[in-house]
Write a structure and sequence with these properties.
membrane, transmembrane, transmembrane helix
């Protein structure tokens, strides 16, 4: 029973991940454009950190999905 609940939760997480990842990518692109305009190194740091976090988040969901199936 608990395994079925776990699988359902992971699949639910994956389905909600796509819009979230899309919004995060739009944010990263916007920060990159702002960096191009201002050349502020803090914006570059935010852009790099956001990219790393987004990739890590998607990878974690894919790993959990693999464990659930």
């Amino acid at each position: 029973m608990a395994d079925r609940v776990y699988v359902a939760q992971v699949l639910s997480l994956l389905s909600s991940m796509t819009p979230s990842a899309l919004m995060a990518m739009i944010f990263i692109i916007n920060v990159g454009v702002a960096y191009d305009v201002t050349a502020d190194p803090r914006l570059l740091a935010v852009d790099v950190a956001g990219s790393i976090f987004n990739v890590w988040r998607i990878a974690a969901v894919l790993v959990l999905r693999g464990l659930a199936s």
